[in-house]
Amino acid sequence: MTIPSRVKLVDVGPRDGLQNEKSPVPAAVKIGLVHRLQDAGLTNIEVTSYVSPKWVPQMADNHEVMSGIARQGGIVYSVLTPNLKGFEAAVLDRPDEIVVFGSASEAFSQKNINCSIAESIERFAPVVEAARAAGIAVRGAMSCTVGCPYEGEVAPERVAYLAGLMKQIGVQHVGVADTIGVGTPRKVQRAVEATLQHYGIDDISGHFHDTYGQALANTLATLEMGVWQFDTSVAGLGGCPYAKGATGNVATEDVVYMLHGMGIETGIDLDKLVDAGAYISDFLGRKPNSRAATALLAKRAG
Ligand code: HMG
Ligand code: MG
């Protein structure tokens, strides 16, 4: 397998990144972040979720954020929709893509979306049907494909099983997520191999959290298998409220630095991306959780 010459990054910072923040982030700041990401050349941005505001209060402003964005042509704005109620609210805000999210482990499915894997598929099926009928792209996120905060190690067979169910209900693309960032290169490769039983390489993306510092290595390991689409988070923001202790996704800045250094195109302007990360990090009162951003900011200051 040859390494892809171009990679598509989906910045999930506004959604995965901010869903777990303790203090409220105003809609205007989220909109400011989305604007900076699109100015930096991101063509795919995961903006928000249409989930229960009791479960995830940070995403309660989904409508305000989606309707406040000055959209640019050619950019795919994605949102999470766990059920028909979420989809019906989301569709009014005209997302280009919706994301249904299931888990390879039963315990995480229960904790995250309050139902079993089988029930989640029953809930997703009408969402997928309605989205496709409306011409909206459908992505499926598969959580805990390597490890689960409640069940421990997750076997590749569980990943293949979930991918098969996603395929059956018409999900067009799936993301292989290491929700708690415990994966190492061979393990994430096995999760991708399991997914390949049901999806082609062009319909699979990587979504690696960096809790144990493995996410960049895992990105490279799956890139070498031909995966060319990754979810990343500006300034390394994020974590899932139902995966305690898990940190953010691999930082977009770190992935872009690595890819550009390998001669792989992303269409992203790293300097502007660093500005976007600095903007949200300044608001949150901390430094960007990205080594490349830290180095580039230090170089600028010097
Ligand atoms: P439920 O309690 O099973 O749902 O929640 P329900 O249908 O029984 O409804 C209960 C209440 O929720 C009702 O309100 C509904 O109206 C409301 P009440 O009568 O009590 O006032 N409700 C909703 N409100 C707004 N939007 C909706 C919605 N659905 C029901 N769509 C549900 C099921 C999925 C809604 C709930 O469990 C939930 O919101 N969970 C949060 C899940 C979440 O956002 N997790 C984080 C994102 S996933 C993630 O981060 C992983 C990912 O990054 C990949 C990875 O890293 O692994 C994607
Ligand atoms: Mg995630």
TrEMBL record:
Name of this protein: hydroxymethylglutaryl-CoA lyase
Tell me which Gene Ontology terms the entry assigns under biological process. ketone body biosynthetic process; L-leucine catabolic process
**Family label:** Belongs to the HMG-CoA lyase family.
Q: Which UniProt keywords apply?
A: Lyase, Metal-binding
Claim: tRNA processing is one of the keywords in the record: no
Pathway(s) annotated for this protein in UniProt: Metabolic intermediate metabolism; (S)-3-hydroxy-3-methylglutaryl-CoA degradation; acetoacetate from (S)-3-hydroxy-3-methylglutaryl-CoA: step 1/1
Q: Which SUPFAM superfamilies match?
A: Aldolase
Q: Which reaction does it catalyse?
A: (3S)-3-hydroxy-3-methylglutaryl-CoA = acetoacetate + acetyl-CoA
The UniProt record lists the Pyruvate carboxyltransferase domain at 7-274
| EC number(s) stated in the UniProt entry for this protein | 4.1.3.4
> Which is an annotated GO molecular function term of this record?
hydroxymethylglutaryl-CoA lyase activity
Record keywords: Lyase included? yes
